[in-house]
Amino acid sequence: MTDDMMNLRMLLEKSSDADLLRELIGFAAQRLMELEVGSLTGAGHGERSAERINQRNGYRERDWETRAGTVELRIPKLRKGSYYPCFLEPRRLAEKALTAVIQEAYVQGVSTRSVDDLVKAMGMSGISKSQVSRLCGEIDEKIATFLNRPLEGDWPYIWLDATYLKVRQDGRIVSVAVIIAVGVNGAGRREVLGMAIGASEAETFWTDFLRKLARRGLRGVKLVISDAHEGIKAAVSKVLSASWQRCRIHFMRNVLAHAGKQGRRVVAAFIGTAFAQDDAGAAKTQWRQVADQLRQRVPKLAALMDEAETDVLAYMTFPAAHRPKLHSTNPIERLIGEIKRRTEVVGIFPNEDAITRLVGAILLEQNDEWAVQRARYMSLETIAPLSNDPIIMLSAVPAA
């Protein structure tokens, strides 16, 4: 302990203010490693003890990137087994993916001033191609396994949505569509089903995406919820034998644009009376009554209601307990919002692999969080009747 105090005092005396924090971090880290290795070997450094169970075997150099700068560590080695400091445990996958994206941008010559500032803020300095290759390979393998995993059981409900990100292609900066699917399975659990990247949200792109999900095992779909994108609607009708729910919130925005500033509140209240009905029949009756009342004064609005009736009220034929989560794309838009927040840090991606790496890591982390939640997204008792799996249907039947 006396030697440690002398070393610390010398450190404080010789270090400048700019280097003090980094030196203190290095001193504390080295001391912590010595204590950890001492517990693993059963004896301190150079100590003779009958309780010793392992021997030291020198050190290996390692640069530790911190927010205070690069700290040079000497990690103790063991003759039997291996030792890895607890404070160097891998960061969250999305953080590692972000780091990999920035490193890859450097390697490919996309080192703009904004990237330099970001790298400094993250505490990184020198970056080698071997570091990039090793880190990217580790992340890509995990994400590929996740995005291509088999989809087992029934998936009564799925939500589809997309966001656009900027990427470099052939020396140009272009926008690409990143489409995502989220589903609820027959056990009432929510999962990320998949993602894909394409030039636009064309019908062929959505069709190919849904067919890939089907090949992975997607089945038992009863309702697909999305915005009113014609490509999605056409792809759903081609690939899935399911109803389509047009996002109620997006529809209301379109409708109220024809109501004028003064009439928006009244029109919203009128249409809302249809959503407040107890069953699909009553909702459709009320919907038509409202459309007829508005037809003479706002014919365009009434025509929109006529056209959208079946799609906007599709969710009313499903269990009442599920309807608050089925009438809009809100469940997936929260996820899209988190993706936008995290990808804005990068701005322009060096390639599509970098997009898959970061967005895939975010989706994987979100899926893991949903998996450990104690409460189901939808109760087993209410969703089991929608499942074609007899085991799930039987498990929801109360015991006699």
Provide structural commentary.
With about 400 residues, the chain is of the alpha/beta class. The protein is built from 16 helices and 8 strands. The chain is elongated and about 95 Å long. Mean pLDDT is about 80; it is low at about 105-115.
Give structural attributes.
400 residues; alpha/beta; 6-stranded mixed sheet; two-stranded antiparallel ribbon; 16 helices; 52% helix
Concise summary:
The protein contains 16 helices and eight strands. It has helices spanning 2-14, 17-41, 93-107, 113-121, 129-147, 203-215, 230-239, 248-256, 260-275, 280-295, 299-312, 323-326, 330-343, 352-372, 380-383, 390-395, and strands at 56-66, 69-78, 157-169, 172-184, 190-198, 223-226, 243-246, 348-349. The longest helix has 25 residues, at 17-41.
Topology:
Elements: H1 2-14, H2 17-41, E1 56-66, E2 69-78, H3 93-107, H4 113-121, H5 129-147, E3 157-169, E4 172-184, E5 190-198, H6 203-215, E6 223-226, H7 230-239, E7 243-246, H8 248-256, H9 260-275, H10 280-295, H11 299-312, H12 323-326, H13 330-343, E8 348-349, H14 352-372, H15 380-383, H16 390-395
Parallel strand pairs: 3-6, 3-8, 6-7
Antiparallel strand pairs: 1-2, 3-4, 4-5
- Assembly level: single chain
Poorly predicted runs are 106-116
* Mean residue pLDDT: 81
Helical run tally: 16
**What series of H and E elements makes up the topology?**
HHEEHHHEEEHEHEHHHHHHEHHH
Distance between the termini: 69 Å
Query: How would you sum up the major sheet?
Result: 6 strands, mixed
- Derived from helix and strand composition plus strand pairing, the structural class reads alpha/beta
**In percent terms, what proportion of residues is strand?**
15-25%
Number of strands: 8
What spatial form do the alpha-carbon principal axes imply?
A: elongated
